[in-house]
Amino acid sequence: MSVLVFIETENGLLKKNFSQIASYGVALSKKLGVKCIAIAFNTDDCEKLSEFGITEFTVFNSGHKFFDCLNYVNIICNFLLENHCKILVTSSSADSKYIGPLIANKWDGHYAPNVVEIPSTDKNFVVKQSCYTNKAFSYTEIYKERIVIGVSNNSFMPVKEKSDCKVKFENLKDRIKTIEVLSVDKFTGRKTIADADIVVSGGRGLKGPENWYLIEDLAEVLGAATACSKPISDMGWRTHDEHVGQTGKPVSSKLYIAIGISGAIQHVAGIAKSKVKVVINNDPEAPFFKSADFGIVGDAFDVVPKLIQKLNEFKSSS
Amino acid sequence: MCYNIKCFIKFEKIYVVKVLVCINSVPDTTSKINFTDNKEYDSTNIQFVINPNDEFGLTRAIWLKEKQNATVDVINVGQSQSDKLLKKCLAIGADNAYRVNIEAINGEMVADEIINFIKSKNHYDLIIAGRESIDYNGGMVAGFIASKLNFPFVTNCVGLKIENNIAYLTREIDGGRENIKCNLPIVVGSQKGLVEESDLKIPNMRGIMLASKKEIKVLGPSKYVSSSKIIRFEKPSEKKEIKMISPDNLDELIDILQNKVKVI
Ligand SMILES: Cc1cc2nc3c(=O)[nH]c(=O)nc-3n(C[C@H](O)[C@H](O)[C@H](O)COP(=O)(O)OP(=O)(O)OC[C@H]3O[C@@H](n4cnc5c(N)ncnc54)[C@H](O)[C@@H]3O)c2cc1C
What is the CATH number assigned to the segment(s) A2-171? Predict the structure, then answer.
């Protein structure tokens, strides 16, 4: 019996969240007294996992450069069966949430997404999950033997642990082509909200798309991703993939800076998992000040350029 | 005249795509979330709405009906309070509304009930369910339906066109988009971007009149045995006090972010 972690890759390299997912799997496997092994596709970036306690790593070469949903599902299901795994650990990325339910069903397992802690295993298996877009948590008892866990972003910190990790390579045979990915358009040169440690976000207080240089410039000095409130993408000032909140993207960055955003309940719910929230708003009564960590009452057009300048000075002096 | 007949014949030959949209009823996004004894969701004074991700899917389905003559059925697994939402679906253009009369307890169960329903009908070419619901955020209904029916599945869908029984889809991925081609039948997880916010339909008088004449077909549930149970809820701990910083003292902010909370 063992715990299997699914490690995601991009352009042949492990994705940034690999250490969180691996550490989660290792911690859970210790609790269950079993070993923790890993699976990935199309990579030779195999050294890193031995720093996080994984003992076996199997890499499948799919012979196809895009995310290949149904083939990945088949391979992972077979692998789970062959290795008598009880638990599969995945992340909360778009790709993991795509294949999670498919694997759970095919493998006859339970799918538990948005898990925020190591499960308790005293009597029954109980997972803590965030629900109602971070407005609450639920504790779910699971009666199935097999479980697919989707670990919520940034809810488990990596733990370094050296291990002897055996790496094996395999090739995919008989690829099924039911879902054919024709092409991928990547937003190049832009940090994505899902991956960024820092997110700088703008709302209606910025008055118009022509003023977005404030958000972009601040994001650039901080190495941050840019985001926006819902009306901004509805009006077409920014593209939909930047819309964060309950009906947009969730944010779980280390730092979230909200500029000219009032802090509506739907917005705040979506960013609740960010560690530190800074709000810049000219209205001292803006609801966002109730849920932020640090607040500045001031005009964005005045405060943001000053902040950019200070950060630049700070960067060049350090 | 002759041309018209030709047109008509050609039109007859076009295959009518049959669409099923799964509709979940969720608390309105402005709702404060409360629980009774931390055991049950407290729905006192809560207004329920169509799950936003489902509504984007429904709106695209209605578009397929208007542009390509598709038929659109909707289904909900839930109790009678969902009828109001199903009526709305009919009023904005759905052809038939079905409801499996049982409280929805988790995504897998909802998927099971919907599959039973699909099997009792002849066939659907396109099954749409929201990428996730905004209550439990489970995101598994669409995937489970696809997997159990052995249909291909594309989620986080922000583009959907159908030509000659082939679906052309766009899936939003972290940091980009994927363009996909897939034969029907298919299951799609819908989300914002599949249609614009401004495309969402508000029922008009005519629609409401038509809907009031249509019946919601209520079906009995199957014998589902759940493999999990929510044993309790918890609310996040109350927020600590905010620290205000003067706009004339941005050095303090930078110092805190760098040295105290260590995020830059
Ligand atoms: C079903 C539903 C789902 C929704 N989902 C989401 C969601 O996922 N995400 C989301 O963001 N919203 C969502 N909303 C919308 C939400 O209710 C708010 O309308 C929205 O978040 C407000 O955006 P905003 O803060 O940019 O604009 P506003 O509320 O107009 O706020 C603008 C703010 O800018 C400040 N301001 C103005 N000028 C300046 C200046 N010069 N300097 C500094 N500050 C200034 C103002 O004081 C104000 O606080 C949803 C709504 C509904 C009904």
Answer: 3.40.50.620
